[in-house]
Amino acid sequence: QKTIALFLAATVVPISCSIFITYYCTKGSFKENMVKEKIMLIKAVSKNITDYMDGIVKSTLFVYSNVTLENLLVGNSSNYQTDSYIFSLMKVVASSGVDIYQVYLSVDGMQCAYLLCQNNLDRGTDGYTPPAGDIRPYSVYVEPTHPSHNYDIVQNTVPRKQLVFTIHRPLFRVPSDRQIGWISIDMKITT
């Protein structure tokens, strides 16, 4: 019996110690790996969101790379061709992100505004002032989450209201600080 007890002690104690040590080492490294993976995932998601929003914000700069549109914004006459041209450029902005709900363009020279919502273009008078207050030239303002609205433009088809946040960019006559309009992009917060 002493031999059996000695044999059990000689095999069970080292095996138990080995299992105990392996369990705690594995548990600790598993937690460390999980934390590292979560941190890497959060950084990747953060970078993706930042890149996505940068793309949306950069799409508001289309005015400065399009001389025809800039001239239309400064001009004071509007016709079917002007509306068609502005509509096509607003569609380009609206297609720059899948979560864009609507795009608003205010044209100071013509004292009118355009609203592209769900591929429907509506035109009205320029009566909306974004809540941005004094904003530095050539910069953007992000309005926190709010219900979507029509920017004081009567819409032919009234869409369902969405919770959105809005990117507002004042447009300027380059290279001066003379404002020639606004562009606002409403981003849905739910898909």
Compact overview of the structure:
It contains 3 helices and 6 strands. By secondary structure, it is an alpha+beta fold.
Characteristic terms for this protein:
alpha+beta, 6 strands, rod-shaped, 3 helices
Low-confidence stretches: none
Question: Please, what is the oligomeric state?
Answer: single chain
Radius of gyration: 29 Å
End-to-end C-alpha gap:
73 Å
What can be said about the biggest beta sheet? 6 strands, antiparallel
- Give the strand order of the largest sheet, numbering strands 1, 2, ... along the chain: 3-2-1-6-5-4
Quote the average pLDDT. 84
**How many DSSP E strands?**
6
Share of residues in strands: 15-25%
What secondary-structure arrangement, pairings included, does this model have?
Elements: H1 2-59, H2 67-74, H3 80-94, E1 100-107, E2 112-117, E3 120-125, E4 141-147, E5 163-172, E6 179-188
Antiparallel strand pairs: 1-2, 1-6, 2-3, 4-5, 5-6
